[in-house]
Automatic annotation (TrEMBL):
Residues 1-24 are annotated as: Disordered. InterPro entries: Fumarylacetoacetase-like_C (IPR011234), Fumarylacetoacetase_C_sf (IPR036663), RraA/RraA-like (IPR005493), RraA/RraA-like_sf (IPR036704). Residues 1-16 have a biased composition (Low complexity). The keyword NAD does not apply. Pfam families: FAA_hydrolase (PF01557), RraA-like (PF03737). It comes from Brevibacterium ammoniilyticum. The keyword Metal-binding applies. Keywords: Metal-binding. This is Fumarylacetoacetase-like C-terminal domain-containing protein. Residues 35-227 form the Fumarylacetoacetase-like C-terminal domain.
Amino acid sequence: MTTADSTTTGAATSADRVATPADRVTAAPTRPGKVIAVHVAYESRAAQRGSSPAAPSYFLKATSSIAASGATIERPAGTELLAFEGEIAVVIGTPARRVTAETAWDHVAGVTAANDFGLYDLKSPDKGSNVRSKSRDGYTPLGPGLISAAEADPRSLRIRTWVNGSLVQDDGTGDDQLIFPLAQIIADLSQHFTLEPGDVILTGTPAGSSVVVPGDVVEVEVSTTSASTGEELSSGRLRTEVVEGPGDFDAELGSVPAVTEALTVDAWGTREAAGLPAESGTALPTENSTALPADLRAKLEQAPTAGLSAQLRARGLNNVVIEGVRPLRAGYRLVGVAKTLRFVPNREDLFASHGGGYNAQKRAFDSLRSGEVIVIEARGESGSGTLGDILALRAKALGAAGVVTDGGVRDSTEVAGILPVFATAANPAVLGRKHVPWESDVAVACGNATVLPGDVIVGDDDGVIVIPRDLAEEVVDAALAKEVEDGWVAAQVAAGHPIEELFPPKGEWKAKFEEWKSSR
């Protein structure tokens, strides 16, 4: 599977990717002196959790938790919340004590891939120290290769995680991706104790961390572009398989596994991913983005876009058709509330700063709510995809009603089977060929129609229309009433009557229709 904004997913094997000159990629450490982990450092992770730290905070992991690539990790029998966290590990090369952010990277030997596994069933008793939940044997896989710090720009690293071959995390270390730059983290820690050669700093995980179960395989890779040669350097894929281990916890010795709703949400990443209903007592979103009432949705699902368009025209609204889009599969019925996403024309420097990592496109799809339709402004440019199957799967998992884009769609056959999508064309190319993902939840121009967040979107085989939220009830009631009338007229025409005075009914025909209607 592919995403509309991914580049290569690393087809080479781990062995191939690590087989680069020894001065650029060497073996990762197997037993560091200290393992220090950052709680939250990524903007995407903070956004997912709803709060952003003002300063970095840390916890320690036991060095006995270190494991090599290819090792297994045990989820104790009777537990359920083992979560992976793909991370970049910074390995210290020379002692660092009270260093500045400007010189901090000079003390780094290199970077590699890490997986900061945690067993959330054991998290509560340790109040953030994570001693029991994250320091279990094998809970810090590291490696396999160490990319030389001399070859790695600390603001241009990439971290990716796969679960069972599917890409689930893809982020970087740019200024708009990390809350705290890697150099700041190193300098901050050095204020408090000496960082010694071989010490490992786990630099936090981006959004996408979630629960894995026995049988799952998790792979993490860190990559960058060589500062000296321009070639891609990789840590290789750090591979860990989850297996079931013994669950013989002795309650007389200390805390035993316990699961709460809050821990379940933290481990899975969201309530939706955990399969939990919306939290009771949570403030409703603003009216424009509130899901449609069930009775209104039911009526909109019955009304054809042609009839709705006619009723909008009767009220003076002519420019409500999203032009040029067609369903990927005939027979789609789309009803929902608009969530908007805007792309701007590709410019290489802007794509470099806004196109990678947890960009506006991914954030928009990750924040979809049940019943929403993501409406994408792509300027009618169908020369590249604006979404692919991974984003379609994410939209479906969050309960989205569908997608409307005046651009192209990648993986169109797969996407067509996932959820209703209306687009201008199929196109295999990635975003960066034509588009830069720019912003969401703003007014957009999709197919020459203005769409506001919260507008009602209705689509069928005839196309897609936009209905202002405050007119939706009135318009659909009128459209359904007209459908009844048109059905009666069609029956009369089929019976051989001429359309004069019949379409629409006038005079005697009007009286006959009213009589028929009252007798129903």
